[in-house]
């Protein structure tokens, strides 16, 4: 994607004879939690990851692997929220807030991933790099959602929530999938942390597997969950078991369970993967918008 410099504020923000004041991004604290969750709930499928982290860990926690920042309008109301750190996510409709978050990000260590809607990520990247550098690794994705329980499909009796006994199997598959996507093997980069995070997700009942005779057939991670949305990643079917309908049956059965406690299921799929897109279309998922993921691990500013 060609990277071009963005204007510092949208024309719609300027009223006759006035220029909007620059925004400042400030760290958010525990006292801000209710206000932040209410702000994020306005667009639940775009903010499910941030909302889920706050619900699970609170606004300030090492488990968030970064810091939450807020940006307020001239009248003091919350206008933007961002998570800056290992994963960088932003939620705002204001270019002024995007610029403010980018300015803070320059002073912090963004270590791995920037993800979000294409126009916002392009604007953030331009402010963050001052328009001087192309993204080191850019992956364009489609955000999909499912809002209705799928039509009745054959059940999979073996589909269950993972237990800690399944940890190594899950860790190895997730590491392989992450390496295929980003080019970075998390087991080489942070083996202990990667295992601990997988174990914590298993402990929360957010990893689903189908294992027969110690052989993994299917796996999905519920990466984030709120009453409004669930976000899935790591949907996997063993290569020897593909093209047999196992994936469709499993993800449909899982959707039936998840939609009983949340309004929407969402996920992203690589825009170049026509097969994956067709699979999710058959499962009832619908296109929402385009996302970009920028992987920072190989960033070279020289």
Give a written overview of the molecule.
The protein has about 300 residues and is an alpha+beta fold. It is built from 9 helices and 12 strands. The protein has helices spanning about 35-40, 45-55, 95-105, 120-130, 165-180, 185-190, 190-205, 245-260, 275-280, and strands spanning about 25, 65-70, 80-85, 85-90, 115, 140-145, 160, 205-210, 215-225, 230-235, 265-270, 285-295. Strands 1-2-3-4-5-12-6-11-10-9-8-7 form a 12-stranded mixed beta sheet, with helices on both faces. Strand 8 (about 205-210) and strand 9 (about 215-225) form a beta hairpin. The radius of gyration is 20 Å and the shape is globular. Mean pLDDT is about 90; it is low at about 1-15.
Arithmetic mean pLDDT: 90
User: Structural class of the secondary structure composition?
Assistant: alpha+beta
| Tally of helical runs | 9
Number of strands: 12
Distance between the termini: 20 Å
Give the structure's gist in a few sentences.
The chain has 302 residues and is an alpha+beta fold.
Topology of helices and strands:
Elements: E1 25-27, H1 33-40, H2 44-57, E2 66-72, E3 78-85, E4 87-92, H3 95-105, E5 113-117, H4 118-129, E6 138-146, E7 159-161, H5 167-182, H6 186-189, H7 191-203, E8 207-212, E9 215-225, E10 230-237, H8 246-258, E11 265-270, H9 274-282, E12 286-295
Parallel strand pairs: 4-5, 10-11
Antiparallel strand pairs: 1-2, 2-3, 3-4, 5-12, 6-11, 6-12, 7-8, 8-9, 9-10
Helix pairs in contact: 1-2, 3-4, 5-7
